[in-house]
Amino acid sequence: MPVTESRLRDALTAEHTLDVLPPDFDSLGVRYSGKVRENFSDGDRRTIIVSDRISAFDVVLGTIPFKGQILNGLARYWFEATEDVAKNHMVAVPDPQAMQVHECTPVPVEFVVRAYLTGVSSTSIGRAYERGERVFCGHPLADGMVKHQRLPTPLVTPSTKAPKGEHDLSVSRSWLIDNGHIDAERFDTLAALALALFARGQALAAERGLLLVDTKYEFGVDRDGELRLIDEIHTPDSSRYWYADTYEAAMERGEDPRSLDKEFVRRWLVAEGFTGDGAPPVLPDSLRIEAARRYIETYERLTGTTFEPSTEPPLPRLRANLGVRPAGDEAGQGG
Length: 335
Description:
The structure is a single chain. The protein is α+β, with helices and mostly antiparallel strands. The chain has one domain (about 5-335): 2-Layer Sandwich (D-amino Acid Aminotransferase, Chain A, domain 1). It contains nine helices and 16 strands. The strands form four sheets. Strands 8, 9, 12, 13, 14, 15 and 16 form a seven-stranded antiparallel beta sheet that branches. A five-stranded antiparallel beta sheet has the order 1-2-3-7-6. α2 (about 65-80) runs parallel beside α8.
């Protein structure tokens, strides 16, 4: 059944959105907290729990109902749909908001692929072009292009992996190599994989009436030395989607293409005067609900299935599905 507005409104409460995980989850392994994902490593496997947090401009803004379930479900869908293109780290999905994966050492580079001259963040190709830059991440850009125009070919525009709380930097292949972040052979291997994954993503999105505008990929090396796609893939958090049937008309009118991702949240923040520095404005409930609707529509369009969320409070459900031991439970430690 469709997720109604009343259902979304009920899910706005702290009990039904997953924000910070309490200390008892540390029984799953050594914790690393990202902006959206909580990672727990036992040395061989990693458990990734996808929170309902939303971030923009590298800042956590609050929570969105059912967001973690949608991201986890979409990551599973795309990992399965691209496993013939690139090996990935997925092992099992024991909970709607959790995935167990191979432990990997991350490659310290994000492989961003862009197919259009767009974006509102300071690191985007669209903003760089507006500033008069005609070389972006080592790629020359022609004069006379317009906002949201399709690029002649998708570009790999890598960025650094900034520590939590800091901003990523869009850089060139040569900068990364010269500064010791990655060697040339590995960069070229992963850039080719990123372009192949992007081509698959564009093709499958097109079948669903969407344009995959840009995205980012992260890779890691497993214990056997194999490269794997890690983190997540083609979700509304990491990817920009536009409706294919309205793109040309929007371009003719000089309007922003109709989007199906979290870009509208970034635009709202910019309108409120926030671009990543200082304290972010509080997201109104109406915006949180609209964001949830867009995430749900993205899930349903891309997978071709109806989104059926678990409406159980997430913390007890995750504890049960992942076997989280209460703090101080010595009996559970004996096996």
